[in-house]
Amino acid sequence: MIDSLILQQGSDWRAQAEVFDEIFFVFLALGTLIGTIVVAYTLWNVYKYRDDGGEPKEDFDAPEVGELPTGQGGPKAKKLFLSFGLSAIVVISLVVYAYGILLYVEEGPDSPEENIEIMVEGYQYGWDYEYPNGHTESGEMVVPADTRIDITVTSRDVWHNFGSSELRIKSDAIPGDTNENWFSVSSEEVQAQGGEATFMVECFELCGPGHSAMKSQITVIPEDEWETWYEGTGGNSSSVEGGVTADGAASINAAAIGGVSA
Amino acid sequence: MSELPPTTSVKRWFVTTNHKDIGILYTITALFFLLFGGVLALLIRMQLWDPTSQILSGLAYNEAVTAHGLIMVFWFLSPFGFGFANYFVPLQIGADDLAFPRLNALSYWMYLFSGILLGISFFQGGTLSAGWTMYAPLNIPMYTPSIGSTGAVLALFMFVVGITASTVNFLTSIHHSRAEGMGIMDMPMFTWSILATVWMMLFAFAALLAVGLILASDRVLGSVYFSATEGGSLLWGHLFWFFGHPEVYIVFFPALGVMLELFQTFSGRRLVGRKWVIISICLISVQSFLVWMHHMFLTTINLEIKTLMMATTIGISLPFDLVVFSLIYTLIKGRIQFTTPFLFAFGALLLFILGGITGVFLGAIVLDYEFRGTYWVVAHFHYVMFGGATALFGGAYYWFPKVTGKMYDELLGKIHFVIFFISFNMVYFSMFLGWETPRRVFEYNPEFQIYHQFGTIGAFVLGLSFFIMFYNFAKSYVSGEPAGDNPWDYSRTAEWAVSSPPPLENWPNRPSYASGKLEFVKDYVPDGGPAVKADAEGNAATDGGDNHEEHISEYPYWDKHPSHASIWPFAISLALGTVLLGLSGFSESLSFVLGDSIASTTLNVSNPVYPILVVVGLVGMVWSGVKWGLQDFYAPPSEFAERWPFEGVEKVKLGMWFFLASDVIVFGAFLSAAIFVRYNAGWMTWEPLTESLPGLINTFVLITSSFTVILALVAAHRKSRQGLLASLGATIAFGFVFLAIKLWEWNHEIFDRGVTINANAHGDPVQASIYYVTTGLHGIHVVIGLLIAIYLFVRAYQGHYLDDERPIEYFGLYWHFVDIVWVFIFPLFYLF
Questions:
Q1: Contact A27 B443 (CB under 8 A)
Q2: Which residue segments constitute the domains of chain B, with CATH numbers given?
Q3: CA atoms B188, B189, B195, B201: torsion sign
Q4: Same domain, A46 and A173
């Protein structure tokens, strides 16, 4: 999973989900390790230095009410700075590492073929997808495999957030503003899901009473099938049934959930 | 009125201005809101039990989510910490009370009435349902139309007004009233945490006040800031998070202060690297204002800014590392006593470590992209904020014997801790496991149902565990063992040096640390003069004496007895609450139909209740404000006190400066909003809506009025009553001229040019909103200034201020500030 820290370019670039899995694993492993060490060390010391009712040691200097703090540095300041330095090194190197990956995610990979640009517009409570030829889909984004899909996300009413957990993509949809993101799904993935891969889309920003049911779906099909489908759209608007009303969105949502858990 | 009734009298609790009484009021009220917010949390958890069935509608769920967040963050966490701060900061620094006791009572009543307004909002067609972050434009009436939504926004506004008063009060107290010999680095760590907290609050809450005012204006007056596509949504994001990130530390620091105290008291060790911990706390306070955009990584801010914010975010985690290590190392070689307070403080540290580590995940932008809007964030901030509050419960057990004089039941306390700690992790750790669930969504992926059900069970156990604490406190208060003055073996701070509970004015004699430790010294008070330090025999000391004589001579009332009671804080708060309740339904009850001129404009009143409330409340405010001013209330300054770094500044003047500093941020936020929206709209596409000549005249009018205020001060100093009346009168006259020109200008804009608060015949409607709201806010400042000036004028006519011209001076500070603000408004709205 952590095999390649050097990000690849060209045809075998990595999807955001893969990038995320790697960095999440690194953080989780290090976080668990450090957390365990710190907590175990603390618990051990708390146990070791418990007040067992015996006589205090000779060097124990009990504080008194009304004393002013003396020795602002304290005898253990050296140890304090050592621990501080170590934690700083860990945290900063983690961030430098994460920053390299950020640059990749921001830039996106070079795609050998032409990218497909899709306008995503959120509304209460659903998503519209507008293709370069002017065709608009509601409730479902149909895209080809092995192609970098560039999305431009906006909103026509309130602040939404367009996100697909499985693809690890997310973008704020802000009225009056456009936000860019990209994703791609390999044909192997599409084959593995039986010739048509579907990914649930959810809204990740509270947008009103129907927020919970604001779901949609990304459908990835093989490139040639998609070409045929795309030519058939001819710039007309069509609407997948439902999708517009809250009820309809809920039914799609149930279907999408079923698909994921199956 | 100034006599304080006994604690058994109900009347006492309405009139008291004593910091200990108010601390108790804060704590009890905050615990009530813990229950209120907790019940809402349980509603949320029940809704999450099964993703396919609902007990609440989508709207009701959103209301529960919103109110839960607002109540816990604003009406529980901060006031709970400040209950302790009220009670113990004056004791820890050796003061008799806070600097402004009546203002302290005012803050409390504002807090209580704002909470009542929030409660009422549930019955005004449903409370706000836009989330506690209230993202625009969901927060405007087009999307959240209920009257209760406006009510909740106004409740928050009122809360912030109270908070601002409290902030000024604590800043002045800590910087002005420390006992002799207690330098700023010598303050106990709890007081240090509170000092850092109030410094952050001074600026952060001013930003919230500004953004709350703009939102209230959008909701009540119909301006169009947040619906504007010229950056309206992002404007909210920036202003809210500029407040919102410091707010995290504002909520956490009082708890951190309790941890720092309790770790020392129950290990018998002094804090390791104390100086560095204090430096870290100060660094965090400054840095907290430089990281807000990490809440907005997924918006359209550019990569360079994101990188900068990532760096500052990581930067702010480092001082926290140091503080955590210091806490851990303090325990080593101690004699650790596992009392209930220590268990809670120690539990808080463990929870905070987990919250901190998961926070580092969020600092990495790529991870944040995926965590945004999910339960990872929810789990993280509950570990940090509620994990911190865990220490506050430790504080409640720690100080219970001091406040009541009775010991709590140790066994029940430990049982509470065990159940609390386990169920806490059940609720919030399960959120990490099911983190892919989007936030505020109840129709989630059934894959995660097991985690959410586990969390729901934990939540009910967690909620019930508090009843063990309530029972413990109630039982112990009635029949607990007497606790004595100092029940703890290794306590250090001064609150343990006095009786439990402490006497009304805290100290047997004047506390002093001049010898390096706390002593109570008796001062020599000659007949007809201020106190001076006494020598060993109790006679006036000849060497040294008062080292701040100039402070004492400024108080002509030195021989008066301190006052502890006033009903006017309660009255003003009640009146302001009435105004705001009226304003919540104002726009639904009234409508203007614009004619060709002001004469042909008609006003339709569909529901007289709300407008009547506004009028009654306003009259009540002015009346109780005047009564407040006339009340003979004496809060003595601490005569021999440490005041670094404000040695030469008198108490009220210091308070005034703090207030003006926060007002700078308020206007700064308004002007930034104007610039931000204009930038997004295309700077050069806007022309000034107004003609520059009236603005120019008004600039001269205001500057001249600043000059006449100085003349008034000079006249008062020279004891010339006529000069004082003439100069004050001139100031008032200039103020009215300014307002008259302003009104003419508005009249001209509305009826001749078709520019109203939400319509603009010459360009973007939001430009008109910004013009009216910004100049309107300045206008309100002028009106308030005029009200004060008229009050001063009448009092000067009666012969006051010739002995003591300070009220004139402080009014002058405010008036100059209002004039300076205009100097910034003028070019932005009249020239370019």
A1: no
A2: 567-630 (no CATH), 686-831 (1.20.120.80)
A3: negative
A4: no
Q: Which domain holds residue A248?
A: 116-261
**Residue A53 near chain B (CB below 8 Å):** no
Residue A15 has pLDDT above 90, yes or no: no
Where among A46, A73, A107 does a domain terminate? A107
Nearest to A91 among B274, B354, B360 (CB): B360
CA closest to B236 among chain A residues: A159
- Would residue B516 be called left, alpha or beta, if left means φ above 0 and alpha means ψ between -120 and 50 degrees? left
> What is the structure's pLDDT at A245?
40
Same structural domain, A189 and A99: no
Separation CA A183–CA A192 (nearest Å): 18
- Residue A4 inside a domain? The answer is no
Give strand ranges (E) for A52-184. 116-123, 126-130, 136-138, 140-144, 149-155, 160-164, 169-173, 179-183
B599 vs A: CB within 8 A: no
For residues B354-373, average pLDDT: 92
Are A96 and A120 within one domain? no
Probe site for chain A from B139, B313, B370 (most A CB atoms < 10 A): B370
In chain B, which residue's Cα lies nearest the Cα of A67? B517
Pairing of β B519-521 and β B590-593 = unpaired
| Chain A residues within 8 A of B364 when measuring between CB atoms | 23, 27, 94-95, 98, 102
- Shared domain for A235 and A146, answered yes or no, is yes
Report yes or no: B304 at the A interface, CB cutoff 8 Å.
no
Average pLDDT, chain A: 83
Reported ipTM: 0.91
Domain boundary pick from A66, A85, A107: A107
Mean pLDDT for chain B? 93
Size of interface A-B (CB pairs under 8 A): 293
Q: Both A21 and A42 in a single domain?
A: yes
Do A77 and B59 count as a contact with CB atoms less than 8 A apart? Answer: no
Neighbours of B44 (CB within 10 A): 17
Q: What is the CATH number of the domain that holds A157?
A: 2.60.40.420
Residue A3 lies in a domain: no
Q: pTM here?
A: 0.94
| Chain A nearest CA to B33, separation (Å) | 24
Q: What are phi and psi of B613, to 5 degrees?
A: -60, -40
Chain A residue at shortest CA distance from B435: A165
pLDDT of A233 above 90: no
Which site among B139, B180, B369, B498 would you substitute to test the A interface, given the most A Cβ atoms closer than 10 Å to its Cβ? B369
The answer to the question of residue A221 being in a domain is yes
Mean pLDDT of B166-175: 97
| d(C-alpha A190, C-alpha B284), whole Å | 49
User: pLDDT (tens digit, 9 = 90+) per residue, B527-578?
Assistant: 555 566 766 666 665 444 444 444 444 444 445 688 999 999 999 999 999 9
Instruction: Outline where B332-374 has alpha helix (H).
Output: 340-363, 365-371
Closest Cα of chain A to B17: distance in Å?
26
Number of structural domains in chain A = 2
Span A38-72, pLDDT tens digits = 999 999 999 999 998 888 888 888 899 999 987 65
A192 at interface of B, judged by CB pairs closer than 8 A: no
- Decide: residue A231, CB within 10 A, 0-12 exposed, 13-18 middle, 19+ buried: exposed
B686, pLDDT greater than 70: yes
Taking an 8 Å cut-off on Cβ atoms, the answer to whether A35 and B136 are in contact is no
Q: What is the mean pLDDT of residues B245-271?
A: 96
| Of the partner residues B268, B300, B322, the one whose CB lies closest to the CB of residue A63 | B268
CA-based nearest distance A199→chain B, Å: 13
CB count in 10 Å sphere of residue B778: 22
pLDDT-above-70 percentage for chain B: 95
- Asked whether residue A252 falls in the same domain as residue A227, the answer is yes
For residue B89, CA distances in Å to A81, A260, B193, B286, B646 come to 30, 56, 10, 22, 19
Q: Please tell me whether residues A85 and A103 are part of one structural domain.
A: yes
Which chain B residue has the Cα nearest residue A201? B438
Contacts of B491 in chain A (CB under 8 A): 63, 65
Tokens representing B124 are: 């005004």
Q: Does residue A151 sit in the same domain as residue A204? A: yes
- Does residue A1 fall inside a structural domain? no
